[in-house]
From TrEMBL:
Helicase C-terminal domain ranges (all copies): 217-379
Statement: the UniProt record of this protein carries the keyword Transcription regulation: no
Protein name per its UniProtKB record: ATP-dependent RNA helicase CshA
CDD domains found in the cross-reference section: DEADc, RRM_DbpA, SF2_C_DEAD
Enzyme Commission designation: 3.6.4.13
Catalytic activity: ATP + H2O = ADP + phosphate + H(+)
InterPro entries: DbpA/CsdA_RNA-bd_dom, DEAD/DEAH_box_helicase_dom, DEAD/DEAH_RhlB, DEAD_box_RNA_helicases, DeaD_dimer, Helicase_ATP-bd, Helicase_C-like, Nucleotide-bd_a/b_plait_sf
């Protein structure tokens, strides 16, 4: 990739401005290779694993070349699921922030009348699932005869889900002079046949080799948070774990600056590193971190490249990274030289599915942890103080204070004196002014047993969709999902458990009559 930057790829200024606002400092491999080719007008097959930044790879060139808007649909982007349609639409809206482009996600499970009304008012880009897109075409409200761009996102997944006939019908209803983009993690024969039939003969095939996606020496955890509690959650983690050397990753340069200011203002020894800092600043900060004079290094992905510090105990993803590869690079900063490391990731309910996707790609479990309570912080600090007091008593240095302690003994109870001194130490070590013992939602989950598993070709996304459609259960009501070979376990809130038991038991799912029971094994 040669460490290209987005400004070298030929994108429109308004799109570059949006990418900068999103905090992306440099393109991923697929973005760096695909964007210039798409800007030249070629049809492209992009082969890369999911989570490598494909949406921006096709979205930025489309938005740069879309031209004058006339109310007609200019681009159609097909995705296998409604979750991905929503995710892609949200990402494109961020890329189109400084343009007047109008986008519309269309998918089943949402009233079609609203989508029809929006299309009649004028939409530039439609992002949708094949079934709903085809329905709108047949109703003659979605006209693809003038489109300039057609994207098949996660094409292999769409074929696995049986959408091949729908896709072909949609393509046949599309402008033949369009530019076609096909993105797929794998390249089965059906994809090759589809490309040969509907893409231009000079189509460019760009494949990004799959990297190793495992970090065996790192224990990985996540905290589900509310965005307003992000900073306090970080402080609680730092106070309860007391890491000696941690790298905290932020998505943007601005976030780095704000977090450094926030942590320093509360007494933590933290400094930042990002692309706007000069070389001397970065060298000095890194030197302090390596020498142990700096506990917390706050960095963007680009600034942290090349950091090789063996004694990093913790990596904390203050912001979720933009792709799986970045996540692996980040957590690989700890667990060096066969030492154990710890990686924490803060995610909102909205980001949860992105985290589960990372977990799937890296084939490694990211376990849930509850946000530390003030009581837990107190116990952690007490154990630390007790250990230090014990070490001091095993030496002679404290004896010079015995006359003072004897004087205090004449006026006060020495147990109360010791407690007062510990209170002074505790007050200095806890830098955040915690007002509540608990923050966030410390959810008590019911664990459900389902008689379907991997052999039935189900995945977490399909399960959540099924619960939503039949029991009106929201994504935020679902915790960990464990899919085994012949059965599955799902953690859900108590209200959701009742609704699922009532409305899903006996329904047909994955070709089987679904049996749902409360599991005898409890798990948070």
């Amino acid at each position: 990739m040669g460490n290209k930057v987005f400004s070298e790829l030929g994108l429109d200024e308004s799109i570059l401005k949006a990418i900068d606002a999103m905090g992306f400092e440099e393109p991923s491999k697929i973005q760096a290779e695909v964007i210039p080719v798409l800007l030249e007008g070629h049809d492209v097959i992009g082969q890369a694993q999911t989570g490598t930044g494909k949406t921006l790879a096709f979205g930025a060139p489309i938005l740069s070349r879309i031209g004058k808007q006339d109310g007609k649909v200019n681009s159609i982007i097909l995705t296998p699921t409604r979750e991905l349609a929503i995710q892609v639409n949200d990402e494109l809206n961020r890329i189109a922030k400084f343009t007047k482009i109008k986008l519309l996600p269309v998918y089943g499970g949402q009233p079609i009348d609203r989508q029809i009304s929006a299309l009649r008012r004028g939409i530039d880009i439609v992002v949708g699932t094949p079934g709903r897109v085809l329905d709108l075409i047949r109703r003659k409200v979605l006209n693809l005869s003038s489109i300039r761009f057609l994207v098949l996102d996660e094409a292999d997944e769409m074929l696995n889900m049986g959408f091949i006939d729908d896709i072909e019908e949609i393509i046949k209803n599309s402008n033949q002079d369009r530019q076609t983009m096909l993105f797929s993690a794998t390249m089965p024969e059906e994809i090759k046949r589809l490309a040969k039939r509907y893409m231009k003969s000079e189509t460019k095939h760009i494949a990004i080799l799959k990297n190793a996606m495992t970090v065996a020496t790192v224990d990985q955890y996540y905290y589900e948070i509310k965005n307003k509690d992000r900073f306090e959650t970080l402080c609680r983690i730092l106070d309860v774990d007391e890491p000696t050397s941690a790298i905290i990753f932020c998505k943007t340069k601005r976030n780095v600056d704000e977090l450094v200011e926030g942590l320093q203002g509360r007494g933590y020894t933290a400094e930042g590193m990002h692309g706007d800092m000069n070389q001397n600043q970065r060298i000095n900060t890194l030197r302090k971190f390596k020498e142990g004079n700096l506990e917390f290094l706050i960095a963007t992905d680009v600034a942290a490249r090349g950091i090789d510090v063996e004694n990093v105990t913790h990596v904390i993803n203050y912001d979720l990274p933009q792709d799986v590869e970045s996540y692996v690079h980040r957590i690989g900063r700890t667990g060096r030289a066969n030492r154990k490391g710890v990686a924490y990731t803060l995610v909102t309910a909205r980001e949860y599915m992105s985290l589960k996707h990372i977990e799937k790609v890296i084939k490694s479990k990211i376990r849930r942890r509850e946000i530390p309570t003030v009581d837990e912080i107190f116990v952690s600090k007490y154990k630390n103080m007790f250990s230090k007091i014990k070490e001091t008593l095993e030496q002679d240095s404290y004896k010079k204070f015995i006359p003072m302690a004897t004087e205090l003994d004449e006026e006060f109870n020495l147990v109360e004196v010791a407690a007062a001194l510990m209170d002074m130490v505790y007050s200095k070590e806890v830098n955040y002014d915690y007002t509540e013992n608990e923050i966030g939602s410390k959810t008590d989950y019911k664990r459900l047993f389902l008689n379907v598993g991997r052999l039935d070709k189900i995945n977490p996304r399909k399960l959540v969709d099924f619960f939503n459609e039949n029991a009106k259960v929201k994504r935020e009501d679902v915790g960990d999902i464990d899919i085994l070979e012949k059965f599955s376990f799902v953690n859900v809130t108590e209200a959701a458990a009742e609704s699922i038991m009532k409305h899903c038991t006996g329904k047909k799912f994955a070709g089987r009559k679904l049996n749902v029971e409360i599991s005898t094994k409890s798990k948070r």
